[in-house]
Amino acid sequence: MSKPLITPRLDLLRALSRELVSPPPIWLMRQAGRYLPEYREIRRKAPDFLALCYSPDLAAEITLQPIRRFGLDAAILFSDILVVPDALGMKVTFREGEGPLLERLETARELTRLRVPVAVERLAPVYETVRRVKRELPENVALIGFAGAPWTVATYMIEGSGDREFVRAKTWAYGDAAAFAALIDILVETSIAHLAAQAEAGVDAVQVFDSWCGVLPDDDFDRWCIEPMQRIVAGVRAKAPGLPIIGFPRGAGLNLGRYVAATGVDAVSLDTTVPLAHAAELQRSVVVQGNLDPIALLAGGDVLGAHTRRIVKALGQGPFIFNLGHGVLPRTPPKHVGELVALVRAGR
Asked: Which domains does the chain possess?
C-alpha cells in the first residue's frame, strides 16, 4: 500500500510558529510593483490602478511575477489598503505621480454615508485573485493577505490623500474623540471581515499595515493603534483560527514592546529605524520580520551585502523572517533583488 503524500510545511509558516528556519524565509514588501518591467507592461493594460486591483486576471499575474523571477518564500496579494474605503462607498482614485486621492470625510455627520456593513460584493474580485494565485503558486511558497490598520486608513479617509502632517485627522481625533472612535469601529469590523474573507479564499497568513502610527503620542498610540489592533487580532482569530497575523506598526519606536505584548500578533515587522539589538530583544517574545533599508537594496553591491549579512547575523539565530523596513523602491534594479535573495540563502 502506497504511503500518502505529505506536503512539506511552508518555511514562512514554520518561522511564524517560532521555529528556527535557517537560512530564514524571505519575502519583500512591495515585491510586486513598478521596479519590475513585467509589472509596468501589465499596468499599461488597466485603465487605472484601482481597476488593476479589481481584475483577478491581472492582479493574480502581478502577484506571481516576483515568485517566478526570484523564487521568494512568500507571495503577497497584489491589492491596496484603500479598497476598504472604496468598498465602504467613498470615491477613491489614483493619479500617476500623485498617489491616492479620496473624496474625504469633512465632518462626523458624513459617517452616515459610509456603506456599513461593507459591500462584500465590491471586494469579491480581491478574493477571487487569492483563489487564482493559490492555484498557481508552487507548493513551497506561502501566500500573504493584508489590510490597512484603522488609524492609517482613517487618515486617508479624512485627509483625502497621503498627507504627512495629519492635521485634519488629528484635529478630528482630538476634538471629537467619540465620532473618531465610531470611524475606527467601522474600520475594525471591516478589516476583520476583509482579512477573514482572504483567509477563507486561501491566504496562509495576513499582515496589517499601520504605516502612520508613528505620528501618534503615547496615549493616542494606545487608543488608535494598539486597541484597534487587539480587536482585529481577536476578531480574525475567531473567524479564522490558526491564521498567523503579522503587525507592521511603522515608526512605533519605543512603543514596539507594548504593541507586541498588547496586540498578541504572531510576528512584528520592523521598520528601518529599529536597532538590531532591540529587535533581538523582541525575538524573545515574538517573531521579528525585517528590516533592510530599501535604499541599501537600491544601492546594491557591497552596501547591500554588508547590510544583509549584519541583519542575518543579528537575528538569524531566533524566530525571523527577512524583509525590508518598508517597500521596494520603484528605481530598484531587479538584479539587486536577485542578489539579495542569494545573499540570504547562502548556505541553504
From this structure: 11-84+123-148+199-345 (3.20.20.210)
